[in-house]
Structure formats: structure tokens, C-alpha cells
Amino acid sequence: xxxxxxxxxxxxxxxxxxxxxxxxxxxxxxxxxxxxxxxxxxxxxxxxxxxxxxxxxxxxxxxxxxxxxxxxxxxxxxxxxxxxxxxxxxxxxxxxxxxxxxxxxxxxxxxxxxxxxxxxxxxxxxxxxxxxxxxxxxxxxxxxxxxxxxxxxxxxxxxxxxxxxxxxxxxxxxxxxxxxxxxxxxxxxxxxxxxxxxxxxxxxxxxxxxxxxxxxxxxxxxxxxxxxxxxxxxxxxxxxxxxxxxxxxxxxxxxxxxxxxxxxxxxxxxxxxxxxxxxxxxxxxxxxxxxxxxxxxxxxxxxxxxxxxxxxxxxxxxxxxxxxxxxxxxxxxxxxxxxxxxxxxxxxxxxxxxxxxxxxxxxxxxxxxxxxxxxxxxxxxxxxxxxxxxxxxxxxxxxxxxxxxxxxxxxxxxxxxxxxxxxxxxxxxxxxxxxxxxxxxxxxxxxxxxxxxxxxxxxxxxxxxxxxxxxxx
Length: 473
Description:
By secondary structure, this protein is an alpha+beta fold. It has helices spanning 2-16, 19-30, 40-46, 62-69, 120-124, 149-155, 164-170, 173-185, 191-200, 209-220, 225-235, 237-241, 261-274, 282-290, 295-298, 312-326, 331-343, 357-367, 371-380, 387-411, 422-429, 435-451, 456-469; strands at 35-38, 53-58, 75-77, 85-90, 93-99, 104-105, 112-113, 135-137, 142-144, 157-158, 188-189, 300-301, 307-308. The protein has a seven-stranded mixed beta sheet. The chain has a two-stranded antiparallel ribbon with strand order 6-7. Strands 10-11 form a two-stranded parallel ribbon. A hairpin with a 5-residue loop joins strand 12 (300-301) and strand 13 (307-308). Helix 13 (261-274) crosses helix 19 (371-380), helix 14 packs across helix 19 and helix 16 runs antiparallel to helix 17. The protein is elongated and about 90 Å long.
């Protein structure tokens, strides 16, 4: 308990010397109201990761909150005021102040019947997990922890203030939040939480795709996404929101040996994360997780005990596009992830360097701005336990990257264009703007990819040859 007492004292001291929290608490006290730092802000303070985004709760009603902060705040917004929340900007920090809540849920749509409460204890019991159900009274610096959230935090356990069944029936999104916190914080859900998630996983279908997508994205961008994904799959949640992931668990028999695609994909995800250089990359992580989702649909048992997955990258790219659209991801993310899945096998035709320079150019231009991510995905996709084979694959890809770098230096592959532009094509062939100009442009681009840069005279000769072959005078 000494360690817990020390942590409690550290948080109280942190709040005591926090100018923003003290200033705000003083404003509310002079107006006759109590103010508490609450929820994730208290949790993160205990974990030593307090951000500039702070959450507060108060007995003041929303209109009264607006009266108190106006004149002090640098900026105020009331977009969440119907739910009791007022947003405040102050000296680079974002503060959210919410009236005590005592909501009741209809348990059909998850929409709460917003009801304001009168006590901090009543507010805390309606929160999702005990580690988020702690508060600090900023006037008295008293620590409020009616559900032993401090102990749960010390043990790194996720549990609910009420029973998990009550909590998840009120808001099924909390089941996905459990998986997300498992990833972000490395916590382990209590046994009763896992049991309730398993029993009630189908309830997640009450939640909108947009909110599900937000939780999945936060989970994937956490420090331990594998743990969060495994919790989703083991409890059945993934079956309802990301069914292609548990769908990769293929039965393996003694006669047809192949990798477990599900476990392989989780390992590829971890290896891709290890290659990130500029922070978490959602597109790369989605592509790593989903790159083989086309395998179950394309699995074929071959004579002699082999197993094939022909064109699984093509099937997988289509499946990725469909799933990410259903989850309401942006068009850019859908396009980028599906293109990475489509291209992830291309390298395996490289052999020991048999590709021509033309094939290397096409690899680069097809990847476009995704090239660096494609490099990481292909490297991460090697999960063989055979160290000699793994080293050979990495050396081969090193060779491909060296060739790409050489050609990029020589030819500026990032901006591959035909050696004649549209205006020049129209002038040389006497054509008006229209489809024929586009066809000629694409022909010259293909020629550029095959042969590299041409001189102007060579390009003109090739253009006129193409025009003659296509009956263009």
C-alpha cells in the first residue's frame, strides 16, 4: 500500500501545482461549485502520461459552466452541451468540463436518456472501467476512488464499476474499448469482463460503423495491438466487426501443412510496427493485418499434399476495400490499404534478381507514394523460422531496393511521364483534344516504363510509328 499511497500523493501534488487546474477550480469555487479532475486524466496522471487534454466534472449545470468560464477561457465551444459538456481552450490546453451524469440507457440503440446527477459518486459508477472511475476534488485535493481504481491500475487490470453485463448492456461500445485499452495500456481484462464480452459480443451490432471504426483505429495504433486483436477474436467481437480476421484461422491437418494465416498475420503486424520510423502508421498496420485475408477464399489442396492460394492478393484487395468501406474509413485509406494488399506479393516474382529494369520501374510506379510502406510490408511478411531462408529473402529485397534507388537517381522514377506531353502529341499528329491523344500518351508512358527515358527524336519516331499502326494520318 505504500506504493499506492505514494502514487496518490504524487497525483495530488501534481494537481496542486497545476496552474490551469487550480485556476479553474478557483473559478468554480467562487461561483459556489465543485470541480473534479476525472476519468482518463486521473488514470494518465498516475501512469505518468498526463496530456494537455484534461477532463473535468462538476455539479454545475451546462449553462452555469458557460457563465463561469467565459472571460477566462481563450475559446469556448458548446457542441456537446446537450450531453452536459462544455469545451474550453486555455494556454494551449483543451479542457472538457461535464456536468455530473446519471444517465439511463434504453439498451436498444445505446442512446442515453441524458440525466444530470448531483454527486461525484453517482457520476463515477456510470463510467466504463474502474481505472477511469477515479477523480480528484481540485478544491480539497481529496482523491475519490469508490471502486478501487487505484488498485486495478497498480495490477494493470480492466474491470467495471458495475457488473460487466450491466455496463455492456448500457453501452456495448465499452467491449471494444476494453480491447482498445488492452492495446493502448497493456492492461488485462478481468475474467468476468472477458466472460461478459464473450456472452454479449453480438450486442456490438447496435453500435454505428463510425464509432466501431474509431475504436479499431485507436486499438491498431496502440503499443500492443496484437493483444487487443486477440481479445476481439477470442471473445467473438471480431466476428461482428472485422470477420475477415478470425476468418483467417484455417484448419491445418497433417497431410496439408501450411502456416496458420491468422497467427502469421499478427506476426507480420508486429514486424511491420518494428519497421516504423515516424510513429504509428494506420495504413501500414491495416495492410499488415489484412494482407492475407484473401487466402481462405483461394485455398486449394494440391496433389502430393501441397496447398496453394493463387491470386489471394487480388481477392484480398477486393475484400479489404469492401470491409474498410463498411467501417466508413476515408477513401484515401481504403485506396491505400487495398493497393498495398494487391501489391504485397509482386516482389516474389523477383527471384534472384531476374527482373528487368522495366519490371522495376513498374513496381515503383504502381506503388507510387506507397513505395516506402510497401518496402516495410514486404519485409515484414517474412515469418519463416528458417534463418537461412529469411536472410536470403532480406538480401534479395536489399538488392531490389538498391536497383530502385539507382534507377530513381538516374531517371527520377517518382515522376515518370511520357517523353512528349499532350500538347506536343496534338501538334505532331495534328489531333484535336480527345481520346486519341490520351491513347497516344499512355502508349508513350508504357514505352517509357519499358525502355527508360527516350530522346525527343526517338520519342517522335515511336509516336509516328504508333500513329501509322493505328491508322492516324
